[in-house]
Amino acid sequence: MLVNNYSFSKTVYQILILLGLSTGAIVFGVIPEINSQTITFNNHVVAQSVSDGDLKKYAQAAIEIENLRVTTLSNIESIVGKSKPSQLNCYQENTFNQLPSNARNIAENYCQQSEAIVKKHGLTNTQFNQIHQQVRNNPTLKQKVQTMIGQM
Description:
The structure is a single chain. Helices cover 67% and strands 4% of the residues. The protein is built from five helices and two strands, in the order H-E-E-H-H-H-H. The protein has a two-stranded antiparallel sheet with strand order 1-2. The longest helix is centred in the middle third of the chain and has 29 residues, at 52-80. Residues 1-6 and 32-47 have low confidence and may be disordered.
């Protein structure tokens, strides 16, 4: 019985993570492309079919990025209190300007780490963004990702 409750809780938690990440990406854009000192904000997405392998990579990266987002927001809140940003928007250069420098550094690290997570799972930012848009717009694909997350 305990295993079933744990499994159910884990599945619900993972689905909530995906929904949170999806909501954030819908509202604020997609993962930035960062090269050394330059951040490029790229929201161009081209529709194409998604393989199961790439969908799994997307799901794994999405879970990891969401966990990082939650931790980052908590760390920022410990610096600025309840006035922390509700979302981390890596796509607008002035998004973090209102934060103190130490909190801004944490937020900027989040953006860089998000890119690294996507690459670690074998996707480019463009691929991740394309898959994200397709998952957001295709209920069947979204259900497939939720099932994959439930099995992780």
